[in-house]
Amino acid sequence: MTDDTTFDPSRRGFLKSSAALGGSAAAMGLGEAAAQEAVPGDPTPEAVEITLRVNGAERHVRADIRASLLDVLRDRLKLTGTKKGCDAGHCGACTISVNGERRLACLTLAIRHQDDEIGTIEGLGNPDEMHSMQAAFVRHDAFQCGYCTPGQIMSAVACIETGNADTREEIKEFMSGNICRCAAFPNIVAAIEDVRDADLVRERDT
User: Fold this and answer.
1) CB 158 within 8 A of CB 102
2) Which of 67, 85, 145, 199 has the fewest CB atoms nearer than 10 Å to its CB?
3) How confident is the model at residue 45, as a pLDDT?
4) Cβ neighbours, 10 Å, residue 131
5) What is the model's pTM?
6) How many C-alpha atoms does 18 have within 13 Å on its Cβ side?
7) Rounded to an integer, what distance in angstroms lies between the CA atom of residue 161 and that of residue 204?
């Protein structure tokens, strides 16, 4: 008598099992594809026209309503200075400014910022006319691979502008959310102190 519940080591049994597993895997794959299909700009039913004010200019894009500000900046507006690191708000590589306050672009939806002033590293300065913080980072060799540097600089500017650079300890605390895997932290702090001191001199002389 044959028991249908017993393991069948035959070639036919193996093929039947493989087919069942393959069907399950395919179903899982389709689920993953469906979850990932909504990338910025895809012609999905959820895509809408978004107007963003970035670095002082109005930019019009079509993006999914679920797209993060980081993805829209990088993939749709081609402002790739803002980096995608952990994509979970842990590393600080995607730091930008929104209405003068630093923000992690990976943790906010683009559609929520249509009336806000968004600033990225591209709007801070360029190689021909660098922001004082960018120049200080170069002067103090405050980077190695450079991947985290845009986010570090955006946070460093905010550190001074928000009055959190009075002491080295305050600077370290404020910058603790920006991770540098190359361990350039001492040089980063030195660059911030340099700009802070220069600003104090200018204020004193005016």
Assistant:
1) yes
2) 145
3) 67
4) 17
5) 0.77
6) 7
7) 17
Strand spans (E) along the chain: 47-54, 57-64, 95-98, 101-104, 117-119
CA distance 140 to 194: 9
Residue identified by tokens 């036919």 is 12
The answer to whether 51 touches 113, Cβ cutoff 8 Å, is: no
State the residue for tokens 């913080």.
133
pLDDT digits (tens, 9 = 90+) for 161-178: 999 999 999 999 999 999
**Best CA proximity match to 52, nearest among 39, 41, 61:** 61
* Closest to 171 in 3D by CA, of 187, 183, 182, 149: 187
Tokens of 29: 């794959």
CA-to-CA distance for 29 and 132, rounded, in angstroms?
49
Nearest to 88 by CA among 102, 110, 68, 74: 68
Which of these, 176, 178, 175, 186, lies nearest to 142 by C-alpha position? 186
- CA–CA distance, 171 with 130 (Å, rounded to integer): 22
Name the 3-class secondary structure at 158.
helix
